[in-house]
Amino acid sequence: MSAITAAPAITATTALTRARQQGWSLVELLLATGLGLLLTLLAASLLLASAGNYRHHAESALLDDSGRAALDILAQAVRQGAYVNWDSTTAPVAIGDDAAPAITGWDARSLSRSSDGIAVPLPAVANGSDVLAVRFAGHGQGVSGDGSSVNCGGFGVAAPSDDDALGWSIFYVALDDAGNGELRCKYLGNGNWGADAIVRGVDSFQVLYGLDTDQPADGVPNRYLNASAIRALDAALVPAGATAEAQQRDLQRRSHWKRVCTVRLALLLHGDGNTRSDTRAMQFDLFGPAYAGNGGQDRGTQVLEAQIPQAQRWQARRLVGLTVALRNRSG
């Protein structure tokens, strides 16, 4: 009878070696690859969201800085308005009751860079943005004076010899080369008119004027009106005087612009790109919901994102505002 040979015993070490040599099955490989791709996609989406949030916060911070700088320039100009140079050897030219108003403006208008003052307004841009013009006396002789009194462009303003020699600081909105609104400062520098941009990305620039209607005036505004309403009040005045010149002086003496004691400013700014993650179209009331466009009579004081072109709708936006009291009587 032949001998039966026993099979070699399988040890634990041999079994572990065989298991290691088997590798992954196709199902395991596909599952691992799918999980890896899913984790990669999740990480990429988190990276994109983080980058988008960073850009949005960066643009929001830039809008805060830009709005603050623009309001500082505007406030300085308004406080400088109607300044009278009492250091001259002759009587100041701006204290006559028939002198031209020191604070004026246009509602829903724009200007050209080189035109004379605000005499020739242009159609408005950027949601009916307004024009604000401030006049003041300077110091020193020569074209630019002694440099102690400057306009919004940084040019010195000399002591005036008549009303036409008063300094100007004019603010209006125009379009840049890319078609975006920018707030500009218009000034008379070295005998020529010019304008420089203060802040870009302007959706709307709005101005209200606080009128002190008390008799005698107490320096406290009783009502706020836009430039169109004030011009309508002046247009209703019946001039007195035997000559056209006398009638003009009478109108300047009684102009409602001379009752302005405070100025309310509002700027709505936008960033460069669509960095917002939300898709809710917002409403901006530049002078609060109580004013809210003044029943449709003050264009641009209410801006609806739903009416903004889709390509610009989801940009970061910032609404800034300020009320500035005049340091000097406006007339």
Topology, element by element:
Layout: H1 12-22, H2 26-80, E1 103-106, E2 109-110, E3 122-123, E4 131-136, E5 167-175, E6 181-189, E7 192-200, E8 202-211, E9 223-225, H3 227-235, H4 244-254, E10 260-270, E11 283-285, E12 302-304, E13 317-325
Antiparallel strand pairs: 1-4, 2-3, 4-5, 5-6, 6-7, 8-9, 8-10, 10-13, 11-12
Describe the structure.
It contains four helices and 13 strands. It has one domain. The strands form four sheets. It has a five-stranded antiparallel beta sheet with strand order 1-4-5-6-7, covered by helices on one side. The protein has a four-stranded antiparallel beta sheet with strand order 9-8-10-13. It is of the alpha+beta class and 331 residues long. The mean pLDDT is 85.
Low-confidence sequence ranges: none
**What are the secondary-structure elements, in order, as H or E?**
HHEEEEEEEEEHHEEEE
Strands, total number = 13
Count, helices? 4
The best one-word shape is elongated
Which short descriptors sum up this protein?
single chain, 331 residues, alpha+beta, five-stranded antiparallel β-sheet, four-stranded antiparallel β-sheet, elongated
TL;DR of this structure?
This protein has 4 helices and 13 strands. With 331 residues, it is of the alpha+beta class.
